[in-house]
Design goal:
The chain has 249 residues and is α+β, with helices and mostly antiparallel strands. Helix content is 27%, strand content 31%. The chain has 2 domains: 192 residues, Bira Bifunctional Protein, Domain 2 (BirA Bifunctional Protein, domain 2, 2-Layer Sandwich), CATH 3.30.930.10; 41 residues, SH3 type barrels (Roll), CATH 2.30.30. Strands 1-2-3-7-6-5-4 form a 7-stranded mixed β-sheet, sandwiched between helices. α3 crosses α5.
């Protein structure tokens, strides 16, 4: 574990229902940050409660943090995590090309979804008790595209795109210090440099995309991400700041 960040606990499990669920269970007893990785998940989930395929050989881990800040600020860590994951993938496979970041929480490889990020949290009174940053990466295999929503970004695996195998342990060893570096920048300088770095690697920036919210469907040009992390879309009826949506290319 060369380079493992100081003060950060590491727990590796053979099997668990979900690393995010495990984070919620152990959160009351933890004072500091902790990475929880499992070689196998029996009830993995993605955004909006969807099932997340996680066969053995793929990566599943959650970082549990206890930030003393408002929920809106804590939620910006999805961008921190995406940057860290991109750096970790480049660290384990130097020279890897084709990586991009898809708003709000995916990492793409050759325009296919290779990783997803899921944030869950608990708090009261406008402050956070804890936040769990779940990260799933298709290291070895990708889900069947037929099981996905129509128009969803096709899944890919790292092995399938590069012909190289990376172990979950190796990725965690790279991801923990990468995240620590970006987290320190976030804590010191705020969201602005994170936003700039994320936009530099954003997928389809300046191009037409479709955003499906809980209430409507918006199509327009992906202009930027604003200071609150919202997607800014230029539509036929003007600029729209979108706080949450499913994005389709």
């Amino acid at each position: 574990m060369t380079g493992w960040p100081g003060g950060v606990e590491r727990r590796v499990l053979d099997s668990v229902d979900s690393t995010n669920a495990e984070a919620a269970r152990i959160a009351p007893g933890l004072a500091g940050p902790c990475w929880i990785m499992a070689y196998r998940q029996t009830a993995a989930r993605g955004r909006r409660g969807r099932a997340w395929a996680n066969p053995e050989g793929n990566f599943a881990a959650t970082l549990l943090l206890r930030p003393d800040e408002p929920p809106a600020q804590a939620a910006l860590r999805s961008f921190v995590a995406a940057l860290a994951l991109r750096d970790a993938l480049l660290a384990v496979l130097p020279g890897l090309s084709g990586l991009s970041l898809k708003w709000p929480n995916d990492v793409l490889l050759n325009e296919g979804k290779v990783a997803g990020i899921l944030l869950e949290s608990s708090g009261n009174g406008g402050r956070m008790d804890w936040i769990a940053i779940g990260i799933g990466v298709n290291l070895l295999s990708a889900p069947d595209p037929a099981a996905l929503e129509a128009g969803a970004t096709p899944p890919v695996s790292l092995a399938g795109e590069t012909g190289q195998r990376v172990t979950p342990d190796a990725l965690l060893d790279a991801l923990a210090p990468a995240y620590d570096r970006w987290e320190r920048q976030f804590a010191t300088l705020g969201f602005a440099p994170i936003r700039t770095a994320w936009l530099a690697g954003a997928a389809r920036l300046g191009q037409g995309i479709t955003a499906r919210t809980a209430r409507d469907t918006l199509t327009g040009t992906f202009e930027t991400v604003d200071e609150a992390g919202n997607l800014v879309l230029v539509t036929s009826s003007g600029r729209r700041a979108v706080p949450a949506a499913e994005i389709f290319f």
